[in-house]
Amino acid sequence: MGSKKRSSADSSEDVEKNHTDSFMKKKKKSKRDKMNADDSDAEAAAPPPPGVASTGKDMEKKKKRRASDKERKRAALDNDGGEPPRRPKPPAAVVVSDSNSDGAAAASSSSSLPELPLSYFRDLASPEGSVREAAATSLVTRLQEIQKQYEMLPDKGSVDGGLMLEAEKNDGLDSCAPHLRYALRRLIRGVSSSRECARQGFALGLTLPVSLISSINVESLLKLISDSLSVSSSMKGQDVKECLLGRLFAYGALARSGRLVEDWKSDKDSQIIKEFTNALIGLAAKKRYLQEPAVHVLLDFVEKLPAEAVLTHVMEAPELHKWFEQATEAGNPDALLLALKLHEKISVDHPVFGKLLPVPFSSGKFFSADHLSVIVDCLKESTFCQPRVHSLWSVIREMLLPEAVVQGEDVSSAPSSSKKQKRNRKSNPIEEEATNNSRSFCEIFMEGTLLSSSHDRKHLAFDILLLLLPKLPASFVQHFLSLKFVQCLMDILSTKDSWLHKVATHFLAELIDWVKDDDTKRVAVTMALQKHSEGKFDNITRTKTVKDLAADFETEEGCTLFLQNLMNLFVDEQHVPEEPSSMKWALEPSSLNSDQSQTTDDNSEIGSNEEKDSIGTTVNSDVLKSWVIESLTGILKHAKLSPEAKLRVQKQILKFLAVQGLFVASLGTEVTSFELQEKFKWPKTATPTALCKMCIEQLQLLLSNSQKIENPIPKESGLEQPEDPVSYFMKFLSTLQSIPSVSLFRSLNEADEKAVKELQETESKLSKEERNCGLSADASKYHALRHLVVQLLLQILLHPGEFSEAASELSVCCDKAFSSSSTDGEGEADGEEEPAVMDVLVDTLLSLLPHSSAPMRSSIEQVFKYFCQDVTNDGLLRMLRVIKKDLKPARHQEDQDSEDLDDDEDCLAIEDEEEEEENEEMGETGESDDPTDDSETVMGVARMAVDREVPENSDDSEEEEDDDGMDDDAMFRMDTYLAQIFKEKRNQAGGETAQSQLVLFKLRVLSLLEIYLHENPGNPQVMTVYLNLAQALVNPSTAESSQQLLQRIWGIIQKKIFKARELFKDESIELSALASLLEKNLKLAAKPFKSKKSGVDPSKKKQSAAWNRHKMITNLAQNSTYWVLRIIDSRKFSETELEKILDVFRSVLVGYFDSSKKSQIKVEFLEEVFRRRPWIAHQLFGFLLEKIVNPKVEYRRVEALELISEALRSLAPIGKETQEESKKKMKFHLVKLSHFIKELVTNMPEKQARRAKVRKFCGRVFRMVSSLKLTKSLLKGLGEDGQTACETALGHLFMNLKNTEED
């Protein structure tokens, strides 16, 4: 070739030479990045070929050459008036321009081609997709224009002989313009660049010219890609990777251009498709990370090809044959993916697939155990692309779960699907095949390969199931949430440090989200998790997954479905029956009077089910069954159902619990009831007694909950009253008892059998009486008694031999209640038995409380609520005696019992002053060896309050016999329930102590007393309850036994007595009794805290408990004082009678001012008394002024100033009409007040805070005196000495008063 001239860009020879030199002289790879960003042409230039690096010296040479070219052009323009110097006309040349340069080179002849801006290539690497698209569009438009003009040139050789930059003549693109050839080489090298988004942009730029310019020879282009991006032995890691990725993107651009398909259509004998397939598969075989994208490029290309071309060209590629042959041994998931997609395209069992696909191909054979064992390596090696899921699994998902199966599941799960549709679905071969495929896939691959392998493969198992979830039918959940899968999930979740813990947590969250809107899926997931964890999924994983799943059922269909699955799981049924009529628990009985039944033994059926269920069937553990039992009653907790729907679900649960908990089949495990039209089934293994008891307990809970939500329909509405659960249960129980082949789960003794029969008869009578009463108050009483009768019946079955006597007594009470209600008004003689009935009822309820379950206690409280208005004084005292009962050591027991029962002794009397003095001698704070018993210091009127309850016709001997002369036998009969506690707990090794049982019993009795106070706020018996509860509260043993008991008693006194909505009325209580009660409360409020005298310091915990108890007792005394004063005010006593009350307060004030530490009464408390009862403050004002002048303790004079101020407010005038009266009263006390002020200012306290209190008090007195115009009288009472002292102590405060003008 001739010599070549330099232009604005380097010649191709110089570029190649520079690249070669730089490659030979290269020392460090990093120097390739040191390109000058200021050189716009260098920025636009394509990166050098892979494996050829440029040094800094070469770049400097390029810069110098370009700078000299620019200077030479600029000088030529200046010398020739802006025109370049004329030179001999060269051949047409390729002209490229840089949009950032000062000027663009132009062709020197009219035949030159348009320029090709280099900015297009720079924009192809932009991060913005829109910029890349615009650059690619502009590039292909310019290349089309250049190629069009090039083809119109008469002498193309002259252009070829010109400057062609990097376009070579022997590249096979002879029909392309040099610009196009340069652009193609530039684009091919650009896809190998990792700069920004160069690969995406240059691939797009390569796709468009190949697609739109037909002059490009595809075969030559394919060779050019291979030559330009070839890998040499001298290349290292990153260079090799960029080169291989560049070839991949170039092949992708070629496949998407569509030219390969067009060439095949024009010449079907062309080998271009085969060559392209070989090149692509050969590239995929080089590196593992190239396999999946290469397969996707080939699959995108195959989608555009007809099946004929695929079969005759793609499938015949030698590299593809080789790749498929090695796939199963090498574990190539991409080869399997390609084989599946190619078979889907051609639908032919081609031999090229080899072992990858079964022959003949079908989904059933593909997922068979034999074939899965062949391709298992291909499947498990798909973990290399984690955390992304391999594309192969999307194809396998479509094979496992065809669309027909998914749609069929949706139709069958709809509520309106009929039995006929279900039968058709059952016989659907597509669904059967999908079920078998899923089962085989889970057993062979998921469980046998992934879950027993590494963490990566366990991760893959979770990813596969997450991929399947959107299409997974509910009936397939049992296959995928298998035993090994659930156990693996539990192991990971139970270990927070596990590498897969976040993966498992994410999977669980997605699983819960998947079932949130589908009850069928929620049931399937819940049952799978609990079945394979033996009912302990939440406990092991430390989550609330199952609890939350079971709480989300809000429809009757969902509740029924969950209930059916729970029942089937309990009786070891592996699948829900397709025809529910074989085990339809929800059918209502048509007749419950008599029954004929048929007993069926599973082993006697033709074709024993034992062989059918032996595979994969395990006997559910007792823990799992216990979870089933506990879940039954919780189904309705969060469900928002109508009363009718809730009753239907309740009856289903009730029947199941009754059958499994109360009865067993004598022969076989199934009993068919023709009258009930139901088939009852028991587990093949006998249910343990513990589970039977649990069923009974849940049955009690179900009936108790039904009692709380019952809402009877008024008879006036004309609607039929639904059968309540109690009646339904009793009839169902009687019907099952009449079946010969069914018996109770345990045998009962004669007494218990008799009690059960009596209770059944009693419930029947109560039911009739309730129906006859309609919706009256008596109907509520009968209804409550019916619930109690049923609870007691179940309690007898739960604890035989313990409740038969109580059952007989309750039956007697109910019978007498019938007789009394039916003979009302017939005579007084019949009515005299009513109190005795109530006493027996109260005794019966108390005897049931110690060992009753929570549902039974609820029924007891309901019965007591409706009958508490008829409770006699004797019955109430029996309850209160339980609260006061105390356990003492053996040597103190006899003395304590006699003290409790001796009403003649004042058990609430306060200690004498001599005792106080003795205590004072023992210590300044009254320390003693024994803790103080405040029960003897509360109130001395218990006897007075009780005396008024005794009938007038009873003499003293009868009273003494009833209360004081009670022998041991009588006491034992009265406290049978207490004796039962002590006896049983002494015999129970390791059981709770008798003291804790007694506390528990007291708490239950307190609940009854709270009901009594709530229902009878104005009853005179409130005072009796108050006195006994107060005595129990201040008893030291109460605090020692239980702080909960102490707080409970205090809460009842405060809320139900002190703050009751109605003040009790009892005119029989004398004022002397109220005054005595008031006195005891005031003395208790003034009692100092006494610490325990001991050589060893008590612990801080005991000191804190003692101090808290003292504060509670003081609070009780103060609130009791307010309450007694309310009672006194409500009685409207005369002023003469009220002097007794004033005397009580006078004695309190005397004790406060005249004793040092005996009285610790709070001034704030007395101030509150004065504020609430101004008449007391008014009457005691003068007495208070006398005592405050010379107190025994100086600081109490200052403390009492607020008390004096509150008393002054009682004398203040309310309006003009009371001005004179207030002035008269104030004047009466003015002398004493003046004397007190004189003493106060004369002996001013030393502390600043107390001085401030004195000045505040004096200012208040001065303002009041001034308002009443008694200033002169006050000054006269003060005298000169007093005035001088006031001026000194009070200053301007007194001077302002002195300057006040009087009328």
Automatic annotation (TrEMBL):
The organism of origin for this protein: Brassica napus (Rape)
Phylogenetic classification of the source organism: Eukaryota, Viridiplantae, Streptophyta, Embryophyta, Tracheophyta
Leader sequence residues: none
Keyword Zinc applies: no
Ranges of biased composition (kind: Polar residues): 590-607
Keywords in alphabetical order: Nucleus
Family stated for the protein in its record: Belongs to the MYBBP1A family.
Comp. bias regions, Low complexity: 92-112
UniProt protein name: DNA polymerase V
Pfam families: DNA_pol_phi
Region: Disordered, residue numbers: 1-112, 411-434, 589-615, 913-968
Biased composition (Basic and acidic residues): 14-24, 68-77
Record's compositionally biased regions (Acidic residues): 913-936, 952-968
UniProt subcellular location: Nucleus
